[in-house]
Amino acid sequence: MIILLIWEIEVASCDPGDFVVNGGYTYSGPVNPLLFIASNEPITNPPGEGWRAVASFAGVDTKTFTVKAYCFDNPPLR
Known about the structure:
Blueprint: E1 5-13, E2 19-28, E3 36-44, E4 47-58, E5 64-72
């Protein structure tokens, strides 16, 4: 049996001048024993830009994989 794995990369970015303080992901869909979260981390190049998560799914079409970045809101300089 051959299992086709689908890799998905999702990114949530902060506004220019702001920086990420935390983040994460949500998954909703059918139970998938082959769901694998490869990374769930802040973007480091450039530092503070946002949050990135990478996941692998086994042939699931009816799923939602969402990434959220919580950013520090720097006020614009005047």
